[in-house]
UniProtKB/TrEMBL annotation:
The lineage of its organism: Bacteria, Bacillati, Bacillota, Bacilli, Bacillales. The keyword Phosphoprotein does not apply. This is Multifunctional fusion protein. K(+) binds at N186, D251, S287. Binds 1 potassium ion per subunit. It comes from Paenibacillus silagei. Gene3D superfamilies: 3.40.1190.20, YjeF N-terminal domain (3.40.50.10260). Its EC number is 4.2.1.136, 5.1.99.6. The keyword NAD applies.
Length: 632
């Protein structure tokens, strides 16, 4: 799934309207319909969870951020990416990629999951889910199609009649939604949604943030159509308004055209909507969110559902924006998906489909019947010190669990007695360099060891030592094969301008945000402000594969492509989890995966294992790094 900036989105809008000749009003109509369908789906979900046939339950209810989303919900077509709030009991995880990857990666029941994740290949399960919508309790279309209508004889006659299931809501009379409309096209989308909601029998009131006369173009057409249908409207600041006196709010105040923090009436409406406690469905992005960086301005809507239009926006994947968006559903509105490919969109959501179709990863990780340990490669790991002996053990065990044939751990001789026998599958190669600890002289020994290995991983638990820059420089310039650089080895790089170092083979850097800050010479807060943008520019400028760790890890390539991973769990915030990732990526490299494949697939598998490990604990806070290895 492609992930775009606001500017790219505008270009695709323009292209669709001007080159393909699809009128802007048609796109807005599709957007409005999609938003209305998601509002109705939310009403159904919370009604079914409350045991009420149809709508009618006011309040944020189960649809609110942090609520539980179930697979059995009456869905609508489209791809979606939903999350529960951290620590919600009963969250679930589900990844459905289109095509080959699908069967292998279905997962359910993440249990206590802070990262409920769900995506579906558009146009595959999507269509089927729309039909399933008819099965919602008391659904008119369901009855029309013969289900639950004895005597209609649909099956016998081979004849059936379907209705507009996704835009039908039993118990709609119990719902009253406010549509907050800005004066741009985002407002226009909301106004179009209002008509569809009204058609479904839901009471709707429009709340204009600005004088309705100030709307222009397609948004003005929508304003007039809503007025002609007699939909009641109030103007903020002019008419009386109680945002809590409704069953839900559509946020169509600001979209990709917004700039800076919301001002005036927009800011006041956002704050009041958040304070109302009602479920909020955002059109395209939560108002107040920076669509590119994920920065949340003050104030920013906290949505239950965000109906993202046409393409996933970068800001919806990056925290804190990802937290403000609630459950994200990407809905097509008539802008061809191919425009993103042709337009050179750089960023993709790391789905099983992207792993197989774009990165050509064999998710099944087939092993040859005649294979032996030599078939699956040999990792050399340079890691560990007396104070951090465990880091090397974690990386080495993770590499083995990732499926490589052999791991040799180059470690300081003084550490050897303490780790002998800890991991019997491991080969230990003590390096001395004179004093039995890491020192500049050990570079030659590590280099010698590396000659017969398929990849080299450097850094976990390494510590810093005199001459470490020269030490790393020699390994950087002289080791054959791909290299993974982590932890203190990253800090060594951060202290020097390594761009002058020469290297013939690819390098993967795996910084957490603190290490990234040191590498880039900025603060950690600045790193987190736009993780995708920073990872991309750093990878391109330094010619490395950059794995920027943390929730929604970004994998960026020197060619200027990036993949955003959404597997993982907050329970993985525990010492050594990063050492495990280094081991997994190295283990995949040794098996012959290319650097971009190993980095992306390694991050993906690491996250899956973290989710699985979290499910196994009574509470995910108990998760420790070794559990991730055992869950691989
Ligand atoms: N055919 C299409 O183009 C399609 C468009 N689509 C939809 O359009 C959305 C983009 O629409 P857009 O470009 O009209 O901008 P939008 O987000 O409505 O905001 C602009 C308005 O907000 C105002 N404003 C800005 N910043 C502000 C602030 N900080 N605080 C307060 N006000 C602020 C600004 O006012 P100004 O500053 O200019 O006076 C202007 O009036 C997109 O997200 C999607 O929903 C899709 O359906 C696909 C098809
Ligand atoms: N909230 C989270 N969601 C998903 N993954 C997480 C989360 N917190 C941490 N992780 C993952 O756990 C790992 C932690 O790595 P790191 O900070 O380097 O740990 P250490 O240095 O102790 O080994 C990273 O891969 C990171 O992406
Ligand atoms: K919005």
């Amino acid at each position: 799934m492609d992930v775009v900036t606001a500017e790219e989105m505008r270009a695709f809008d323009r292209d669709t309207i001007e080159r393909l000749g699809i009128p802007a009003i048609a796109l807005m109509e599709n957007a409005g319909r999609a938003i209305a369908e998601e509002v109705i789906a939310l009403c159904r979900r919370r009604a079914s969870e409350a045991g009420v046939p149809g709508g009618g339950m006011w309040g944020a209810g189960a649809g609110a951020a942090g609520g539980v989303v179930r697979n059995s919900e009456a869905g609508v077509p489209g791809s979606e990416l939903g999350r529960d709030g951290a620590g919600v009991v009963g969250g679930e995880a589900r990844h459905v990629g289109a095509g080959t990857a699908r069967g292998g990666v279905w997962r359910n029941g993440a249990g206590i999951s802070g990262a409920e994740v769900k995506w579906e290949g558009a146009g595959t399960t999507g269509g089927g889910m729309m039909r399933d919508g008819a099965e919602a309790a008391g659904d008119v279309a369901g009855a029309l199609s013969g289900r639950g209508a004895p005597g209609f004889g649909a099956d016998a006659a081979g004849f059936s009649v379907g209705g507009d299931a996704a835009l039908t809501l039993a118990g709609a009379g119990g719902e009253h939604w406010l549509v907050l409309a800005g004066k741009g096209n985002n407002g226009g989308d909301g106004l179009a949604a209002a008509r569809h909601l009204r058609e479904a029998g839901i009471a709707v009131t429009l709340v204009y943030a600005a004088a309705p006369e100030s709307l222009a173009g397609e948004a003005a057409l929508q304003r007039d159509a809503a007025a002609a249908m007699g939909i009641p409207a109030v103007v903020y600041g002019k008419d009386a308004l109680d945002l809590a006196a409704c069953s839900g709010i559509v946020d169509a105040l600001l979209g990709t055209g917004s700039a800076g923090a919301p001002r005036g009436a927009y800011a006041e409406l956002i704050a009041a909507a958040n304070a109302s406690g009602r479920a909020i469905v955002s059109a395209d992005i939560p108002s107040g969110l920076d669509a590119d960086t994920g920065e949340t301005h003050e104030p920013c809507i906290h949505a239950s559902v965000t109906v993202c239009l046409a393409f996933l926006k970068r800001g919806l994947l990056q925290y804190p924006g990802a937290g403000a968006a609630g459950r994200v559903v990407v809905r097509s509105i008539g802008i061809p998906a191919a425009l993103a490919r042709e337009g050179g969109v750089q960023v993709s959501l790391l789905t099983p489909e992207v792993l197989t179709a774009r990165l050509k990863v064999d998710l099944a990780r087939r092993r040859s019947p005649e294979g032996h340990k030599g078939t699956y490669g040999h990792v050399l790991l340079a890691a560990g010190s007396l104070r951090m002996s465990g880091a090397g053990l974690l990386s080495a065990r993770a590499a083995l669990r990732a499926g490589c044939g052999l791991v040799t751990w180059a470690l300081p001789e003084k550490l050897l007695p303490y780790v002998i026998g800890s991991v019997p599958e491991l080969m230990l190669a003590p390096v001395t360099g004179g004093d039995g600890e890491w020192n500049a002289g050990t570079a030659a020994e590590v280099l010698r060891l590396s000659t017969s290995r398929d990849c080299t991983a450097i850094g976990p638990g390494l510590g810093r030592f005199e001459g470490d820059t020269e030490w790393l420089r020699r390994l950087w310039e002289e080791t054959e094969g791909p290299m993974v650089i982590d932890a203190d080895a990253l800090n060594i790089l951060a202290d020097t301008d390594y761009r002058s170092w020469s290297r013939r083979h690819p390098v993967i850097l795996t910084p957490h945000p603190g290490e990234m800050a040191r590498l880039a010479g900025i603060s950690t807060a600045e790193v987190q402000r736009d993780r995708i943008g920073l990872a991309l520019s750093y990878a391109v400028q330094h010619g490395v594969i950059l794995v920027l760790k943390g929730a929604h890890t970004v994998i960026a390539t020197p060619e200027g492509l990036a993949y955003i991973n959404i597997t993982g769990h907050p329970g993985m915030g525990t010492g050594g989890a990063g050492d495990v990732l280094t081991g997994i990526i190295s283990g995949l490299l040794a098996q012959g995966l290319e650097v971009d494949q190993a980095a992306a697939f390694g991050v993906y598998l690491h996250g899956l294992a973290g989710e699985r490990a979290a499910r196994k604990r009574d509470h995910p806070a108990a998760l420790i790094a070794g559990d991730i290895i055992e869950a691989l």
